[in-house]
Here is the input.
Amino acid sequence: MELNDVDRRIWEEELSAFVPARVFDAHTHVYRWAFNLDPHKETGAYKSLLGEEYADATWELANRVDQALMPGREVHRLSFPFPFQHPCDFAASNAFIASETAKDPQSAALMLVHPGMTAEEIERDLDRHRYLGFKPYRFYSSTGDAVDCRLTDFMPEHQIAIAHRRKLIIMMHLAKRDAIADRDNQTDLVRLCEKYPNVRWILAHCARSYSSWAIEQAAATLRKLPNVWYDTSSVCESDAMDALYNGVGCDRVMYGSDDIPIGVLRGKYIAFGYAWAYLSEKNQSLNLSHCDARMTFTRYEQLRAMQRAARRLGMTPAQNQALFYDTAAALIDSTRKLAPVSQRPGRV
Ligand SMILES: [Zn+2]
Here is the structure.
């Protein structure tokens, strides 16, 4: 996590004046590597991503990362576990997120869910902890297909109904190759927003639009949905944010880091054609002898994109403050006030 002269230059010249003093990070992961129960995990794909430097993503580590990358900023978080592929220790993941997040009264936690969880199990956990909603993930799709699954394949209606009744948040990372541009995803979202109007949806990663085309295609539909918010986590293309601000407005958009560990890793999400991919120092063999080939943190690339999009839009300081803090703080605050008494602070 050491900053080098490239990182420091980007922070000082491009980002320090852009990131306000108070930040509410709407998309953070807090977890332990031990919650990944895969017996082959030490040789698996996650090992280099999560199993070494960031094996224990505690609240204190999240604080250290934020202080290194955004020095002097006051940071609060909407946090949830890391969605390890089955077998994942859901009980330990959820107990850990509750106890870690409780270290900051302004922060809030979401519960990691899979479609096999019954309403009774979920209600019991909601009563026991202070979760303000759910973090489903496409890996847990009941169809067994994590790429081409529909929203209710990994967030079934009996769980959405609980979120509706308790007025909770659902952090939604959409599946399918076209993400929010996919017709099924749009149809499902419109239907579910109408049927369960109390649910507060957050569409992660600019509605999983890592460049402009998906959100441009979906904007007219999304604009009509009043209970949908967006986080900017790990999106590194200013065109995507541009499309989001122009398509649905910036008043529902919230800063998110996708830390730990995505934001603190050196690399960038790049987009081409109708694809997007993570480019890092380790996964490419480009000839970069003509330039300074060092990569900076994904979070800095994301903030650069946000800064350029804000400049293009002519964002006011108040809008910028809303993007980084006010919108998320208001969403968390109102969800907490609306949630049943057992979920409010001090009533664990
Ligand atoms: Zn994430």
Summary: The chain has 13 helices and 13 strands. The mean pLDDT is 96.
